[in-house]
Amino acid sequence: MTETMTSTGTDQVVEVAGVQVHLARGGSGDPLLVLHHDIGHPGWLPFYQQLAERFEVIAPSHPGYDRSSRPGWMRSVRDVAVAYQWLLADLELEGVSVVGLGFGGWIAAEMATMAPRSFKRLVLVGAMGIQPDDGEILDQSLVNYIEYARAGFHDQRAFDQVYGSEPSTDQLETWDRNREMSFRIAWKPYMYSQTLPHLLGGVTTPTLVVWGAEDRIVPQSCGERYARSLPQARLEILEGAGHCVEMERPAELVQLITA
Amino acid sequence: MHLMYFTEQPMSAYPAAEGRAFGNTALLFSNKHFDPVEGSRLYGERLDEYLYAEEVGIDGIMLNEHHNAPFCMQAKANIFAAILAGMTKQVKIVLLGNPLPLAENPIRLAEELAMIDMVSKGRLVSGFVRGGGQEQLATGVNPAYNRERFEEAHDLIVKAWTQPGPFRWEGTHYQHRVVNPWALPLQQPHPRIWVPGVLSRETIIWAAEHRYPYIALNTSIEATKRIWATYDQAASGVGYTPGPENRGYLQRVHVAETEERALENAREFMWMQGEFTGLAHPVWSSPSGYFSPEHRRGFVEFAAGRATSPRGRPSFEQQIDEMQIIAGTPKTVIPKLRRILEETRPGIMALWGSDGNVSHADTKTCIRLLGQEVLPAMREISTELGLDSPFEANAPVSLAYSAGTERVAATG
């Protein structure tokens, strides 16, 4: 394990399932695993800083995303979920809560179904992973990197703040690499599992499902379905927010998580 | 020299203004604009042209396939190959080729190709391609595994053709517990495999390492020379020296009775603004994982609208100047073709006669003039330059079936 102090908290590299996983860590308190979107981990933004005031935040870059190495063998989001269960065991963390953002919400839901009583709390924000009853999950293969990332924002000023109005070519390359990994593990069916909804009923973890009312990536019907399928779930709709709630409305989301 | 006739089979009878307004005609341009009555007419004309090309003495008919786009009406190369297998007598049927990664079941391809080879009495050349980026999206196939699927499907098909079944295939992308097709190719050990391409260095090296001829698709003379340098280096790495029999070249060449008419018709090569594969959307034509990581930076800048296509997009005038398009009467065309042959030294040459809205009558005139004047001249030049085709050179079909390694391949 290597460890360096950066302005984004502590950056660690740990090996799990043969993958070099980059972890951003910061804060103290109960452990909180934060799982990022399919566009990658954007750095230690206000959302993470504010969570770190209450929790020990662990934010890995998924296998094959950002700087984490790509496991050529990985074929499904469930593989990622298993790798993260392995990671939590290696880190010897107890009483972990999980926040899953978009694509990361799908990973979190898969993790919860594997060990229905292992998490203290589960928060799914605009989570992918189940087929919408109404609408479709936006197909990123048909739009460019910037268009897709922007579609995650209702407030484009929030996008500009995080990525700049003209994201760098390095950022585009990262998005392309992340997109390639999403294709490798979630191509068909695209961004959902046909079996996950049937397995959510066993999850007794108290769950908060949060949805931006203006989410253009994952339809709100998915949030409603998550809330119906998870026995201990409550759905919160944030008016005027898009898919990337944590970047558009960090304080409100942190408040919901810590309430 | 093996001389082939080629056309993309353009679906020219579509509302072009609608296509331009939509912007990108490959993939999402609605098929509500597809008129099957016109489609039926155009298929008939193409078939008539292929038969005429055989009549005037062409050596081969080159076929390909594409999906969801007006620039090419062939959704399945094997369909036209099967039709030509029954209707022609002499020509080689050259598929360049079947897009292997799109196949969910490569054994089905092995069967179809074996049937075409038997029906045609051994006239099949079975080229394989990765398929364009948008083809992956049109067929729902994962672009991130494109190259892996290409290589594995190839290995499976060649094994199905050459090793007695039943056998079991437990691969990464394909698993078949029983492989035992009751359709095998007439040609032994198997039909020739040629590999066409434009850009991808990995494909050139892969072809060279298998000793499969590589067909450069209308690349500039300089780019073609770089392709051969890459090919030659890979070939020497596996122990052979390539010659013209390993090299193919696709040339856009329109011949007419007058220079003016030829030039006018040649402009139709630009009907998709000169784009080979329809008016491509930079994201649809290059899905993540499809292209080589060494091109990642160029493609992401292109996709974001910050750079021009890494594939290039030269103007008509530039393509005429650089002879990527040749147009004229036989008298003016032949010296240009001589220059192409001298510079690129292929043993296989595909002549792409017309595109877009060139009429059936003008296309047949082009084919007639090719047959009467251009083909005989090209044969003479090829003899003078020593440009033997794989058939004339009696080249091995692959490295595995090259002299000295045959026994290993047969028992391995």
Descriptors for this entry?
A: 259 residues, alpha/beta, Rossmann fold, 9-stranded mixed beta sheet, B: 412 residues, TIM Barrel, 9-stranded parallel beta sheet, two-stranded antiparallel sheet
Record the SSE blueprint:
The complex is a heterodimer of chains A (259) and B (412).
Chain A: E1 2-6, E2 9-16, E3 19-26, E4 30-35, H1 46-52, E5 55-60, H2 77-90, E6 97-101, H3 103-114, E7 121-125, H4 145-151, H5 156-163, H6 169-186, H7 196-199, E8 207-212, H8 220-229, E9 233-238, H9 245-248, H10 250-258
Parallel strand pairs in A: 4-5, 4-6, 6-7, 7-8, 8-9
Antiparallel strand pairs in A: 1-2, 2-3, 3-5
Helix pairs in contact in A: 1-10, 2-3
Chain B: E1 2-6, H1 16-22, H2 36-55, E2 60-63, H3 77-87, E3 92-99, H4 106-119, E4 124-129, H5 133-139, H6 146-162, E5 167-170, E6 175-179, E7 195-197, H7 201-210, E8 214-217, H8 221-237, E9 247-255, H9 259-266, H10 296-303, H11 316-321, E10 325-328, H12 330-344, E11 348-352, H13 360-385, H14 406-411
Helix pairs in contact in B: 2-13, 3-4, 4-6, 7-8, 12-13
Structure notes:
The complex is a heterodimer of chains A (259) and B (412). Chain A is an alpha/beta fold and 259 residues long. Chain A has a single domain, classed as 3-Layer(aba) Sandwich (Rossmann fold). Helix content of chain A is 36%, strand content 21%. Chain A has 10 helices and 9 strands. Chain A has helices at 46-52, 77-90, 103-114, 145-151, 156-163, 169-186, 196-199, 220-229, 245-248, 250-258; strands spanning 2-6, 9-16, 19-26, 30-35, 55-60, 97-101, 121-125, 207-212, 233-238. In chain A, helix 2 crosses helix 3 (103-114). Chain A is globular, with a radius of gyration of 17 Å. Helices cover 42% and strands 14% of the residues of chain B. Chain B has 14 helices and 11 strands. Chain B has helices at 16-22, 36-55, 77-87, 106-119, 133-139, 146-162, 201-210, 221-237, 259-266, 296-303, 316-321, 330-344, 360-385, 406-411, and strands spanning 2-6, 60-63, 92-99, 124-129, 167-170, 175-179, 195-197, 214-217, 247-255, 325-328, 348-352. Chain B is an alpha/beta fold and 412 residues long. In chain B, the strands form 2 sheets. In chain B, strands 1, 2, 3, 4, 7, 8, 9, 10 and 11 form a 9-stranded parallel sheet that branches. In chain B, 49% of the residues are buried. Chain B has one domain: Luciferase-like domain (TIM Barrel), CATH 3.20.20. The A-B interface holds A 141-146, 169, 172-173, 175-177, 179-180, 183-184, 187-188 and B 28, 137, 140, 142-145, 282-284, 287-289, 296-297, 299-301, 303-306.
